[in-house]
Amino acid sequence: MFNLVKGTHDVILSEADKYSYIEQTLIQVAEYFNYKEFRTPIMEYSELFQRSVGDSSDIVRKEMYTFLDKGDRSITLRPELTAGVIRSIVNNKLLALGDIPIKAYYVGPCFRYERPQQGRYRQFNQFGIECVGVVSPYRDVEVISLCYFSLKMLGFKSLKLVINCLGDDESRNNYKEVLRNYFEKHLDSMCGDCKERFKLNVLRILDCKDPADQEIVKNAPKIEDYLTEKSKDNFNKVLKSLDELGIEYEIDRNLVRGLDYYSDVVFEFHYTSSKGINYGALCGGGHYNKLIQEIGGPKDIEGCGFAIGIERIASVMSDDSLFDEIDDSLDCYIMPLDISYQDKALEIATSLRLNGYKSDVNLEGKGLKGMLKKAIKLSSKYALILGEDEIKNNSIVVKDLSKETQESIELDKLIDYLDEKENENHSCSCHHHEE
Ligand code: ATP
Ligand code: MG
Hints:
Oligomer: single chain
Strand order of the largest sheet: 1-5-6-11-10-9-7-8
Structural class: alpha+beta
Bound molecules: adenosine-5'-triphosphate, magnesium ion
CATH architecture of the largest domain: 2-Layer Sandwich
């Protein structure tokens, strides 16, 4: 017997279905926002992450899977996907002036050497997007709203956007100076991590989870007093636009996020279930001014993105019964009453599927009664009965299982008939085959 590597997990059977469902929903929303898929390597040179995620981040300091390959090159299994996606955009010279913004989405495994615990793994999956070539604060709003719509599509009802502005370089440099002066006086009583954060990136102290340190953070100077006019103006535009879109938010002046590359807008979406359970952050993201340049791209190109943890989403959705609300019913279950009608049944199923009706065929027999039972078990909307008469006059009996009515329909008119019934059922145009 071989055990799983510590911190990894198998995603199999119905759990795998859940992951596919989540990923497909996220991809669909991203594509509606005109994002294109990027698949980058799982291994990158370690320096990429040191430069981008940043030497002061927990990820680079203690969570990376880094090793020397046989050619003595330092390789790292990606702890996140932003750096690789930006690298690929830069390497492939996609940033010609007329081509921006580049809108990329990604999905795949990440690796972090963390202490494994409930919902926290050493190999986990992220979905995310990067918009590179951001020249308007409304692009940041578009990214935030994409994130919001994605979570809504998955069934999360009461979401809270937690947002902050970290300012541009000038704002942040002024603020860091003031913060350093403030924390210097308290440093002796603060935790070991904070002593290190003080040296590497003082902003990171705002993120400390130690209760005693949080008391000290409470009275620290606030970033909003050090923002430049431009940063302040951009942030206000973002907030106003969020108001107009009806996305509720809360400003948290201590939200800094765990990666060094963020500037200006940073955000997280938090979720509290209808039962009142607070699940905390489902995802996080923000704007970055210098990352593209840092990775070797042109100066002055900015970006914005976010990442969602698939494991986190799946566990919250399971816990809050959100998968139960997914409609996985069938449209048509075709029931040939004799083995010799099976080929005809398959032909009908094919035509139904090509017209957007999710269909299945009974090829196992067991008589009309047994087949009807199966149709109900599969929660099919319609049972389509193919008996001797129907074969003779090229028709089929369509039984509406919710209304318990049935009609004999000529095969030529089957699709039209079903389309019409669907239109009657809900006069909204949301049925999936009307794309
Ligand atoms: P956290 O504060 O939970 O450690 P983070 O700030 O490190 O999160 P990001 O790097 O922004 O997270 O990654 C985005 C998302 O990826 C998180 O919101 C979370 O859902 C997920 N995630 C991060 N680390 C792990 C992990 N070790 N296992 C599973 N999911 C994770
Ligand atoms: Mg983390």
